[in-house]
Amino acid sequence: MVHRIGESPAAQRVRQWLAPLLLRIQQWIAPLARRLWERVAPQVEAAQDKVQGRLNSAFGNDLTAGKQSPVPARVRSMQLGAAAAALGIVAVVVGSAGGVSGGQDVEEAAQTAALPAGAPQNPGQAPVPADPHGGDGDVPPEAPPAPEPEAPWGPPAEGIDVSNHNGSIDWRKVAADGKQFTFVLATDGTSFTNPRYSEQYHGAKEAGLIAGAYHFARPDKSAEAQADRLLATADYQPDGRSLPPVLDLEVDPKGGGCYGLSVQEMHQWTDTFNRKIKDATGKDPIIYANPSFWNQCMGGTADYGDHPLWLASYGVSNPKVPAGFDNWDFWQYTDSGKVAGISKPTDLNQFQGGIERLKQLASN
Fold first, then answer.
1. Counting CB atoms within 10 angstroms of each CB, which of 44, 176, 291, 301 has the fewest?
2. Catalytic site residues?
């Protein structure tokens, strides 16, 4: 196991990161170096023998003949010895590159890189304490990704909402009439499903509209069952063309009022429904309501102020926002609109933020 005393943590991490790469390079070069050594080894050995022979011959002849060489014997010995050493170094470098033992230090470094953080690198070294803030030594932890910037505001986007009562719709004509989004009734209570839902919902998306499914709530019946029914019908897809599902909260159509529930019970029912939808889609449901219902049945609560608000308010130029919300996102401003491609009167809506923000709501 390799350990370098005095090496900084940053240098250790760089070395540990490079170790596997160096090992792979060595493994790739080794066969080439081995073949190279097999070719040059005879020549290197012959050159070594030749130099050594000349060295012996030169010193032997001079000493036997009693002659004085023009170059001092010590200098000649150093020159010839250096030549022989150089050839020996060539042999060692080429041979070790092609061998297995030359990779020992790299292999040990690679093993060190595989150790978990904080493990000692040798028996005498104390473990490195973990950074209590989640960092890695002297390197600060990575910052979380920045949230996507909000799209710019634009002129209100125009849209509609439809149900089975609207019958067959020519969505190409709806789109050509300037409508950019639609909500489609998917389910009502625990027992009704719009028989035209798939035709209307997918037809709108195929024509280029952004679409969302809505559920007409019956809070005197199971919230779980109604959420499951909506999810089974809506076919919600995170495709950038689907708005979050809608919880349509209105007074009891059979007699008005709040379905015989207290404000607290209405909150509990709404929380249960919304939680199931968010668990399945990752989205907070859009809340559809009008000011009188919200004040009467929900107590003007701000608990749902972070949900997009689809506000119903007819015959006004500036709708009143219910207590608990900062502003409206969608505004249903009439139930008697005329739209190309739809034979009967239909509901008309606006999205306040403009088309780019509408696309962002369908994407996030």
1. 176
2. 161, 248, 250
